[in-house]
Write a sequence for this structure.
């Protein structure tokens, strides 16, 4: 009788856990706001679509912002916080150079605060808006976004450089950086496919064109025709203002063309080229040349990236404004 009771309790627990989509109140789930703010995901989508139709570069901006958020303190919107008198926040760190879209997230948040005050986190808004912006722009339904993230209260500029992989990283460093976030080499290769869209600034790869080893030489792993083209686009080795396409020929399309370029030694950054220097990662590159594999894999890796270090349950807070920590 006693064991039966225990078994029953266990069974109930398991059923409850499955229905909640995770035990410990810890994990994200689909439709977290279904009861508390039924229109939340609709509102995010509508607002995002309006913004993207006015700014086709927005998907790339949001995708990169979501990545930066997740790699520094986890996906808890620390990237969105503004600096204050006594604190320089992430967004004012050096690698922020081209982060954009803060105003878009703020606008969506404002609409959500009207509909359901204090319910929808900025971290979830960023995750949802990233996916929605890409689905709209590239006319394709993409990955599911699980929700239930809460917002952090800390954002420190000098944590960015320590946590974000740099464009001059070699394979070992990239692998370590992703492993530190619980991501695999497969995730590294797949998510680098984010460089299928958007642009990068000349100073972040100009060493490869002008002075790779300090002898005025070029990076031998960079296709020489492509290098010559890049030299016509950049205004010399110290150009910090020009930005070029990350996926030449296809930067306005989200697709697996990035890997085609990569195989032809036309990866823009050393960190892109580095994916060919290891057997496991170069095999992964080979597989991603199949379009359907890429979209499936990208969705799965985005889910994993979107779950890094999330705050759930009663951790963190739901910010009232995405740029500032709640005052009480
Ligand atoms: C693997 C390590 C990575 C490195 C070293 C890296 C580095 C960079 C750098 C240096 C830029 C150019 C920034 C600029 O000049 O303005 C850039 C742009 C970009 N990155 Fe990455 N990145 C990495 C991974 C990722 C991941 C995982 C994603 C998303 C899944 C991503 C998405 C993007 C996008 C969309 C852009 C274009 C942004 C724009 O057009 O403004 N990157 N990345
Ligand atoms: C969609 O967005 C537009 C522009 O922000 C707004 O005027 C409209 O009310 C929104 N519709 C819904 C259903 O949220
Ligand atoms: C900055 O100052 C505010 C009060 O003005 C304080 O609440 C907060 O903890 C301080 N932040 C840091 C990082 O010292
Ligand atoms: C990036 O940081 C610099 C300070 O290092 C700041 O002046 C600039 O406004 C920041 N850019 C963004 C997009 O926040
Ligand atoms: C990668 O870079 C690190 C740091 O500069 C260096 O210690 C390591 O030897 C490099 N690895 C390879 C395989 O080049
Ligand atoms: C290349 O780099 C080396 C070492 O950093 C430096 O001494 C040299 O002046 C550079 N050459 C050019 C052309 O910038």
């Amino acid at each position: 009788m006693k064991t039966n009771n225990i078994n029953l309790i266990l069974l109930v627990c398991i059923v409850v856990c499955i229905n909640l989509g995770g035990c410990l109140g810890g994990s994200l789930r689909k439709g977290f706001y279904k009861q508390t703010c039924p229109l939340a995901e609709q509102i995010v989508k509508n607002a995002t679509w309006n913004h993207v139709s006015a700014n086709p570069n927005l998907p790339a901006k949001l995708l990169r912002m979501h990545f930066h958020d997740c790699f520094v303190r986890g996906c808890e919107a620390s990237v969105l916080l503004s600096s204050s008198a006594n604190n320089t926040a992430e967004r004012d760190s050096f690698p922020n150079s081209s982060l954009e879209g803060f105003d878009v997230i703020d606008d969506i948040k404002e609409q959500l605060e009207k509909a359901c005050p204090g319910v929808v986190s900025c971290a979830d808004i960023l995750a949802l808006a990233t996916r929605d912006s890409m689905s709209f722009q590239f006319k394709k339904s993409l990955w599911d976004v699980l929700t239930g993230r809460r917002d952090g209260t800390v954002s420190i500029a000098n944590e960015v450089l320590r946590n974000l992989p740099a464009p001059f990283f070699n394979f070992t460093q990239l692998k370590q950086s992703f492993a530190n976030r619980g991501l695999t080499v497969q995730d590294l290769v797949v998510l680098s496919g984010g460089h299928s869209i958007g642009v990068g600034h000349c100073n972040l790869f100009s060493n490869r064109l002008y002075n790779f080893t300090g002898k005025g030489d070029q990076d031998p792993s960079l296709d020489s025709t492509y290098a010559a083209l890049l030299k016509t686009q950049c205004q010399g080795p110290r150009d910090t203002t020009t930005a070029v396409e990350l996926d030449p020929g296809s930067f306005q399309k989200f697709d697996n063309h990035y890997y085609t370029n990569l195989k032809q030694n036309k990866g823009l950054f050393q960190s892109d080229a580095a994916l060919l220097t290891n057997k496991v990662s170069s095999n992964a590159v080979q597989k991603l040349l199949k379009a359907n594999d890429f979209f499936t894999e990208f969705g799965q890796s985005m889910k994993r990236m979107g779950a890094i270090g999330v705050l759930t349950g009663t951790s963190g807070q739901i910010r009232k404004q995405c740029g500032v920590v709640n005052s009480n």
Notes: The first helix runs from residue 2 to 20. The longest strand covers residues 199-201.
